[in-house]
Amino acid sequence: MEGQYGWDVGLDALRGIRAERLRRELTLVGGGAQPAPRLREFTDSGVRHLPRLLAELRGYHRAAVEPYWTHIQAQIEAERAARGRALLDGGADELLASLPPMLRWRAPVLECDYPVDRDVRLRGRGLLLQPSFFCRRTAVTLHDPELPPVLVYPAAAHLASAPTCGEGVRPTSLDDHRQRTLGKLVGHTRSVVLRAIGDGATTSELARRAGVSLASASQHACVMREAGLVTTLRRGNAVLHTVTPLGAALLKGGAVAS
Q1: For 67-117, how does the pLDDT look when each residue is reduced to its tens digit (9 = 90+)?
Q2: CA 79 to CA 73: how far, in whole Å?
Q3: Which CATH number fits the domain that encloses residue 238?
Q4: Percentages helix, strand, coil for the chain, rounded to the nearest 5?
């Protein structure tokens, strides 16, 4: 529901849903089986319980999503950067071939691991690729074939393991670890490296832009990743570094030493 236009817009769309559409969507949730009592209550009552549903969704979002939103946003931005680079490097074919392994591009068909046997025919309508932090293992599409074709797929950033800095100790608290790592971040070189990442850079590009060695660029990027300022996404034998919202805010505020 967060989607392209934000959480509030998604809630507004749900608030304006018609009773018959709500019943149809809730019936789909049950998969044809006898719905649970609370779900049946919603189905039978139409839109009368919508205010309660909206309140429950707001509470869940506040407890389960908001505390991690910066991390989620960073993962999606890293995914977008990787797919955008693939599109620029080799067009649509390269973009589709670069998708996570549960998606396989065999022109002119994009195959994917899917919960059920289903064909989606575009009929010239195009396809919106939507990476999702919450999607796991398989891609999903909108159930209604008359809606614009959308393929929601797992963001590769959380499927790939990022290189470690070789310290050998996993932190017990991510926030405590980031506070310790931020203490290492002061200095002109890392300021240059963070700015050099720009809209995304491989380690070799980063080294060239910042005027440092490959090993130095890798180490600086690793420390900044552990501090939450950089996200790293593997692409074959290379890795693509992108600045997180926290890193961008740090740059914008001029808090990084220059």
Answers
A1: 888 878 888 888 888 888 888 888 999 999 989 888 999 999 999 988 888
A2: 10
A3: 1.10.10.10
A4: 50, 15, 40
- In a domain, residue 94? The reply is yes
Q: Considering 64, 80, 109, which residue would you say is the last residue of a domain? A: 64
| pLDDT tens for each residue of 208-240 | 999 999 999 999 998 888 888 888 887 767 788
Q: Which domain holds residue 22?
A: 7-64
Q: Angle, to 10 degrees, between the axis of helix 69-97 and the axis of helix 245-252?
A: 110
Tell whether 29 and 80 lie within a shared domain: no
What is the spatial distance between Cα 126 and Cα 150, in angstroms, rounded to a whole number? 9
Question: Which amino acid does the sequence have at 238?
Answer: A
Do 205 and 152 belong together in one domain? no
Helix (H, G, I), strand (E, B) or coil at 241: strand
Determine the number of helices (DSSP H) and then strands (DSSP E) in the chain. 10, 8
The one-letter code for the residue type at 33 is A
- Asked whether residue 54 falls in the same domain as residue 124, the answer is no
* Residue 166 maps to a domain: no
Q: How many domains does the chain have?
A: 3
165 occurs within a structural domain = no
The distance from CA 59 to its chain's CA centroid, rounded to whole angstroms, is 22
Is residue 143 in some structural domain?
yes
Per residue in 121-149, pLDDT (tens digit) is 898 889 999 999 888 888 888 877 778 89
Q: What is the Cα–Cα distance from 178 to 227, expressed in whole angstroms?
A: 5
Burial class (CB in 10 A: 0-12, 13-18, 19+), 188: exposed
pLDDT digits (tens, 9 = 90+) for 8-19: 888 888 888 887
Report the C-alpha gap between 58 and 78 in whole angstroms. Answer: 27
